[in-house]
Amino acid sequence: MVREVDLDYMNDLEQHGLSPDIEETKKHLFEKYNSVLGHMDLVAKYCRNLAGALIDEGDFEGAHNLIIASQTHDHSKLFNDEWVYLCEYQGGEQSPEVKKAVYEHVHNNNHHPEFHEYKGGIHAMDETSLQELVADWQSRADEFGIPIIDFLRDKGFKKYGFTEDSPVFHKIQKYYYMMTSKRLT
After folding, report:
1. What pTM does this model have?
2. Lowest mean per-residue pLDDT among 5-14, 28-37, 136-145, 165-174
3. How far apart are CA 174 and CA 14, in angstroms?
4. pLDDT tens per residue, range 26-69
5. Residues 147, 180, 63, CA angle at the centre, nearest 5°?
6. Residue 20 DSSP one-character state
7. In sequence order, which residues have a C-beta less than 8 Å from that of residue 141 and are 6 or more positions away?
8. Phi/psi of residue 183, each to 5°?
């Protein structure tokens, strides 16, 4: 089944930060697709690395579940407010539209701790979702040139309610090592 997206917003290009010049619009859309799909590809690559390590450990079902998750990672960014606003956001002050798109994204994608906030947040995440989260964080770290541990120490530990002594952090360390063959320090 193929989902279609309503691109009526393209009829009012300037309202959505697009130039009425068709060549500028084409360039903008190519950049947007490259950014979104590039991130999805990078997450899938890290998930494949981790799935290979899970296979080596004999966790065939876990590896299979992670591969499936990796192939649907962030698909919601291609639709509705996420496509229009979230994919344009480059950090800094968030408009009400961006805040709404971020909220929808993190509450509708189970690889985000916010999806699990009423069940215990990051501590309640199933193994596959946590593994996908680590792959997502590593992908964002690569994209922004900031190590995961710096993100966690700067805001992640406080935002998600865990520490370097938490069992969930030890799982994150394990998955990070399985995915990259590097220590998370």
Report:
1. 0.87
2. 5-14
3. 47
4. 888 888 899 999 999 999 999 999 999 999 999 999 999 999 99
5. 125
6. S
7. 147, 148, 151
8. -85, 145
Could you read off the pLDDT of 141-152 as tens digits, one per residue? 999 999 999 999
Helix (H) / strand (E) containing 22: helix 22-56
What would the two tokens of residue 14 be? Answer: 């300037």
Q: Which of 100-104, 135-139, 159-163 has the lowest mean pLDDT?
A: 100-104
| Closest of 106, 109, 113 to residue 171, by C-alpha | 113
25 neighbors 31 (Cβ within 8 angstroms): no
In angstroms, the CA 128 to CA 51 distance is 10
d(CA 88, CA 82): 9
**Two tokens, residue 15:** 């309202």
Contact status, residue 128 vs residue 65, Cβ threshold 8 Å:
yes
Instruction: Outline where 57-181 has alpha helix (H).
Output: 60-71, 80-84, 96-108, 127-144, 148-151, 157-160, 167-180
* Measured CA distances, 80 to 27, 74, 117 (Å): 21, 13, 23
Are the C-beta atoms of residues 113 and 133 closer than 8 Å to each other? Answer: yes
The DSSP-derived string for 61-90 is HHHHHHHHHHHSTTGGGGSHHHHHTGGG--
Tokens 């690889």, residue located: 111
